[in-house]
Amino acid sequence: MQGPITDIVRLGLLVLFLRVQQRSRPHTYIRQWFVGWTFIFLGYTVWAVPGTTPLTGKLQDIACFDFLLLGVLTFLVSLLPPAAWRRRGLVVAVVLGVVNVGVVNLQQLVSLPKLLLVGMVLLWHGNGLYAADVLLRGKLQGIRRAVFAFCTVYGAAMLAYVLMTPAKNLNSWAVGEVLLCTALLYWKWGEKNGAVRWVGTLGFVGWAAFYYGNILLVEGSRAHRLLDEFWSFPKYFVAVTMILKIFEDTTNDQAMMAELFRELYEDFRLIYNSHPHPMWICDEGGGRFLTANDAMLREYGYSMEELYGMEMEGLQCPVDPESEVELNLEDTGPEGTLVKHRHKDGRVVWVNQVIREITYLGQAAQFVIARDVTDRIALDQELTHRARHDALTGLPNRHLMEERIQQSLTTCVRDDRRATLLTIDIDHFKLINDTYGHLVGDECLRAVAERLKSKIRKADTIARTGGEEFMAIVGGLTSASDAEKVAGSLLRVFENPVEVSIGELHVTVSVGVAVYPDDAEDVETLRRLSDEALYRAKRGGRNRAAYANDMAGGGSLRQMNLVG
Prior knowledge:
rod-shaped; 6-stranded antiparallel sheet; 564 residues; 6-stranded mixed sheet; alpha+beta
């Protein structure tokens, strides 16, 4: 019915199958089964080679027995629950087992004294009892007692066989005993009421029964020849149950994974729907809404039906660079992007929008979480404004003015234009403070700041740089004479008195003017020349403008005087 070549091909395919399975599955027992069937495959390969001499044939039988014993022992170990404390017992059992196998192999070549064989049987079963005691502790007490009882009875039967016969089939006795112990463990290891448990256990028992048939049946008899015909049948029975076990565990693993994914999905839905921040999922292409959590619907004011007909861009508002000049929109860190969103009621908020690529219902999608940071942005803007503006007048302070001057000069270089730096001081401001008090002085400063600001374009800058001192940078001039027009407009704005709580105050200012690049090409020199021009205006009678180019040219003082 079968030959050695057929067995080798079948076993080779089985080993290949297990190799593929153990590479793709984490189960330890699959790797051990792969090793065990590899040993059995090697045993059949050795057995299939024709022996040239009687000694060669005996050596082949010994090698075949050793590989077979290693294979079934590996099956037995694969059924033990792994634990680090059992390694010592396993090592001792292997060392003693090698000694016993050596005696059995030697018995195949020469006839050994019965006393030595009796010692071997006692050592073999003592080793088995020790291994069972060490390896089957804990939750396996029931199977441990069964193995103890089996090894005791089996040992007695084997002793009787050694004492009453030439004991030429000790290898069959040894393999049969390991197979029966494996059957006991397989019965305990398998699923209750499972077909794999029953079939596998019967397969190991049947495999062992064939070795006992080899012992009991007369060689050459019809029954023995029939046994040879079906010799490989039990092991394939075992192989089939192992394959079924792998497929069964694969199905169980898939079911467990599906259940785990279901639980994770339910957890995600719970977290997603109850999360305090708005979240939604939209498609990757057009940003069309696919789903949204309760916080999104509540805060943005849309229903889910309304969102289905929208795209994410419908929420966003364009950012005006001029109105957001104090906000660095790119400095958002790794968390996300700052964008403006408009709610259904028209309210506009700043949000930190984080987008992640995901797969949703089998299609590429985007998962979005939007945290409202309007209050944080407002606080940041307020703190930044305070740090860069004068608290009394709201005008830029000296630090911000330094930046604006540099920006204006850079623009002039790019556009081939001129700029003028004006230093402005309120005339006799100390007298106002001493006469009317500091509260009226503060009112006066605010009123002066408002009038100066009204004459400075939005693209230019007016700042308060000291107690009663202001500074303005005006760019985009085509000629130096344009600076005179700017200074004149600042002087004329004070032709009418300013209104304060005590009534009207007649206020005048003095202005020092320096022009870039006519008077200087660096900020420090430009500022110094503007200051010196201011002092010249004050010394010249106040309520007038003085120009740096008059001092540089060595000519007479040229001033703009608005005093009638």
